[in-house]
Amino acid sequence: MGSIPKNFHAGVVLGAPGVREKSVTTISKNGVTDFMLSIISEKEETKEPFYVLDLGEVTALMDKWTLTLPMVRPFYAVKCNPDPALLGSLAALGSNFDCASRAEIESVLSLGVSPNRIIYANPCKQESHIKYAASVGVNLTTFDAEEELDKIRKWHPKCALLIRIKAPDDSGARCPLGTKYGSLPEEVTPLLQAAQTARLNVVGVSFHIGSGATHSQAYKGAIASAKSVFDAAGRLGMSRMKILNIGGGFTAGSQFDEAATAIKSALQAYFTSEPGLTVISEPGRFFSDSAFTLATTIIGKRVRGDLREYWINDGIYGSMNCILYDHATITCTPLACNSNRANPTCKGFRTYSSTVFGPTCDALDTVLTGHQLPELQVNDWLVFPNMGAYTVAAGSSFNGFNTAAILTHLASSNMN
Ligand code: PLP
């Protein structure tokens, strides 16, 4: 795998436009707070929310992946966080990409990434997007229905295909995907026959055990099912399948180690007799979640007895949509630059049960309740760690608070 140049910004590395903050600041491993303080002092006037993307964390995650699962090539799932600086740094580190739409393919290609590093991993695609993929040379996609085969035959007949199967167990996932995607065991042979009849080239199998998976053993069952599809293809006299796509479901931390152990033992059990097999994956959450920290300003306050209520300038309709759509639990810490400049993290201060509201006029826009915070004031800041996965990607501009306008600043924790 590659490395991120010291003077990295995506525009320099790969000729892409669109990265909004161009310098990389080197910080100590735990220095995101200090880095945020330096940005906040520069932004005294605007008080707009911002993200810090820690490039050192992205590099460390890629190192962790390469050391732990060297036999599995990652295709970063762009849907999880399409920030151009993140995409650029992952491209520089040698990642490939999972795109689900024309716009995602365009954003990856605009970084100078070759189309053969992209999988169009959406089993149900708009015809015009298939046509576009064909025109730019994205030649690998997934399917799980005969109707999809008809569209591919019409618009991109040379495309290599992976049959997406339903993972047998996605019950431990925060966001299971099996009710929407993946062919059932009894559908596999008819689908492979339909592909044969249409003279389409099915080169492998793909599955996803669900995003935010907690049952790492689910990879085992899914890999066993994938093997039975390889065998079914053999019985139909199809050319030998050569790609196994184990999807996403990875979370940085101990879950990743458990997942890796389950995957390696399942590959050993089921796929040693498949020479020349390429194993790929589509991690999104793994590479983005812990790499982004969000800073928001307190724009309003109300005191009700012992309860403190704060309004901030990002919320449920913005980055914190992850609470609704991704079933995320989030947390925050104070940066009291206004009221406690000498001790901005408020170490040792008395805390109060606090509610944190987002900025829109909807009462649903409530970010945290019963959260312990020190006494803070308007223009202090609240900092939210682990905000990279399924946050900005699905934010809106409801009520005029535009998530897409939130700037990303680049920092590096271990690239001295
Ligand atoms: N690949 C596909 C096809 C997906 O639908 C998703 C998420 O929904 C991902 C990859 C990313 O998976 P994860 O969120 O587990 O990283």
UniProtKB/TrEMBL annotation:
Keywords: Lyase, Pyridoxal phosphate. Pathway: Amine and polyamine biosynthesis; putrescine biosynthesis via L-ornithine pathway; putrescine from L-ornithine: step 1/1. CDD domains: PLPDE_III_ODC (cd00622). GO terms for cellular component: cytoplasm. It catalyses: L-ornithine + H(+) = putrescine + CO2. The active site is at C361 (proton donor). This is ornithine decarboxylase. The lineage of its organism: Eukaryota, Viridiplantae, Streptophyta, Embryophyta, Tracheophyta.
